[in-house]
Description:
Layout: H1 8-29, H2 34-56, E1 61-64, E2 78-86, H3 88-92, E3 99-106, E4 109-117, E5 122-125, E6 140-144, H4 150-159, E7 162-166, H5 169-177, E8 183-186, H6 192-204, E9 208-210, E10 229-232, H7 234-245
Parallel strand pairs: 1-2, 6-7, 6-8
Antiparallel strand pairs: 2-3, 3-4, 4-5, 8-10, 9-10
Helix pairs in contact: 1-2, 5-6
Amino acid sequence: MGLYDMTDGDLACKLAEDAGRMLVRLREDSRLTGKKLGKAGDETANEMLVAALREARPDDGLLSEESKDTKDRLTQDRVWIIDPVDGTREYGEARSDWAVHVALAVRGQAVTGAVSLPDLGVTLRSDRPGTEPIRQDRLRMVVSRSRPAKEALHVAKKLDAELIPMGSAGAKSMAVVRGEADIYLHSGGQYEWDNCAPVAVAQAHGLHCSRIDGAPLIYNQSETWLPDLLICHKEDAAQILAIVAAL
């Protein structure tokens, strides 16, 4: 089956996995490390993903972290939103908490997504969700390894939640989807490519996804800055949003 004949879900999954395998090979075969490895990975994976999407979905729009943005996508209902290496720092440091994001937004909604965690050998996808993650009695919150957001720390204190430091946005989001955490609250700044694929996957697994003021997440906007995000179990969303609103 050619790329053109695949369903959107199969295409997203294949491209995320292919890019992940390529990135692992690049890290193993090159002598690059750190920022140089991260830059090479971003460029190589982006080239591969963009070429494949142009072949498979020539009529769709495209937004990538690593490509120059054009406003042509704003006139299109279907737009692919990709992050070739989510967590470039973690990838360059040979950590496992980085990801590849491939998502499709339709009329502003994250409808299809695949998030590959290459070093874990796992890809999570919106069109084939697994079981809904189980909420723990003592909630667990994933936070940045280096700069935990003040809102996240405040919510964790109010809920007596355990803090789990972790790298990329994709890794944090998928920790909730995989049942390794219960809350991902981010307020330190993101772009559409940082969370479109994770949100598509998380929503398909029955999780709540919104801005931290409760507003919906809208994609394919002229301004791609999408600075905050909440992914959690639906039963905890109202309480978490109320705690943030009271700050």
